[in-house]
């Protein structure tokens, strides 16, 4: 391997300038023979996830358009990654931030947002994502705060159209890219990529993946919304699943554009167990530390690759880092203390015994 010592070739005026231009990394041990799988690793963003992109664009678009005033409090409902991204952006720009999040998501997410200076208001996991969205709306209306509206705003998919999709085209310039496999949370990545890739590469196929027990899109049932485009009820096909960040209990308005526009060529479900197992394999076999949603994305890509023609090139997304899943089933069985084998190794030499 040739190591580069050129740096990034520039100095940065703030952490916000480092968002984007994440690498697409080839999987060398997990991909089936004869098929190439690449993963665009969004943990390289400064706050560790793909949601850094939309967090920055939501705030800066609102600033440009006068929807967000200097010093105004920002509020948003989130499963975690958008909240962490917004906490970073608001810290850098000087906006107070309040997050609503139900208490079923990992505690590390709350701690990270609070570490950035945000306030986190918890709702009950029994009220699901619809409950935390409704709470954010209540607080915004009562206090005159700026509601980020990640699930409804055009600023979400727009940033993926103008950055993420363009980066992919640049990375694969002069190279085949046959298939893209995506999950969805807000739907911003899926919609933004669909807008661009379907136009730029006419033969490309895009497959959407969902948790097998929460296959909202696959059900064919329409999402009920209020006049703001927010979900008015939980989707009837939803069931709790461990893929945090994927598939809330409603189909977001941002995602609806991709469905209505026919950006997808197929649907491929994955199970929670498959997602966790693949995230562990990515760490152990590829040296890539991603979360359960990243494992889900690669599990779906591998399923697709197993029946693909030789020479097929597939791209998928790794939305975040695995470090924000320490309290989840992803790290179940990974102990802090030495196991018997490690203790035996410690005792196998005479010095510095534990």
Overview of the structural elements:
- The chain is α/β, with parallel strands linked by helices and 354 residues long.
- The chain has 2 domains: 199 residues, Rossmann fold, CATH 3.40.50; 97 residues, Rossmann fold (3-Layer(aba) Sandwich).
- The strands form 2 sheets. A 6-stranded mixed beta sheet has the order 1-2-10-7-8-9, with helices on both faces.
- Helix 1 crosses helix 2.
- The protein is globular.
What's the gyration radius in Å?
21 Å
How would a textbook summarize the main sheet? 6 strands, mixed
Number of β-strand runs: 10
Task: State the name of the first-level CATH class of the largest domain.
Answer: Alpha Beta
Oligomer: single chain
Figure out the total of helices.
Answer: 11
User: What is the overall pLDDT average?
Assistant: 96
| Percent helix | 25-40%
Content-based structural category: alpha/beta
Architecture (CATH level 2) name of the largest domain: 3-Layer(aba) Sandwich
Strand order of the largest sheet: 1-2-10-7-8-9
Order of helices and strands: EEHEHEHEHEHEHEHHEHHEH
Question: What's the quick description here?
Answer:
The protein has 354 residues and is α/β, with parallel strands linked by helices. It has helices at 51-64, 81-93, 107-115, 128-143, 154-171, 188-200, 216-219, 253-260, 272-286, 292-305, 340-347, and strands spanning 24-26, 36-41, 74-77, 97-102, 119-123, 146-147, 179-182, 205-211, 266-270, 313-318. Helix 5 (154-171) packs across helix 6 and helix 9 crosses helix 10.
